[in-house]
Specification:
Length: about 100
């Protein structure tokens, strides 16, 4: 599941980078899910973690998330990809502000 999220974010990264999401409204729609991926409260060690065991999610949140293993690597890679997308979005917004400022002067 986390590897799928990473790959979807990689596609979003390229879509943003090549101008598919070029207006401010589209960017605002993307920000909420990107920030949700970065928020550690949403991390799950595997798909359906809450359904498998009542204590599994709590144990993961308290200790398991800091252990180096393939599941955590997938979570970190997905978060890294979300940061890459955010970087492109922030650069895009910064460039728009520069263009507006240059146009006005």
């Amino acid at each position: 599941h986390n590897q799928l999220v990473e790959q979807v974010l990689r596609l979003v990264h390229y879509l943003v980078r090549f101008g598919y999401y070029a207006n401010i409204e589209d960017i605002q729609v993307l920000l909420r899910p990107l920030l949700s991926v970065l928020d550690g409260r949403n991390d799950k060690p595997f798909e359906g973690a809450k359904e498998r065991s009542p204590g599994a999610q709590k144990q993961y949140e308290e200790q398991g998330r800091f252990v180096h293993n393939p599941q955590n690597t997938a979570v970190v890679n997905a978060k890294h990809m979300a940061m890459e997308v955010l970087e492109v979005l922030f650069n895009f917004r910064f460039n728009i502000r520069l263009e507006v400022k240059e146009y006005c002067t």
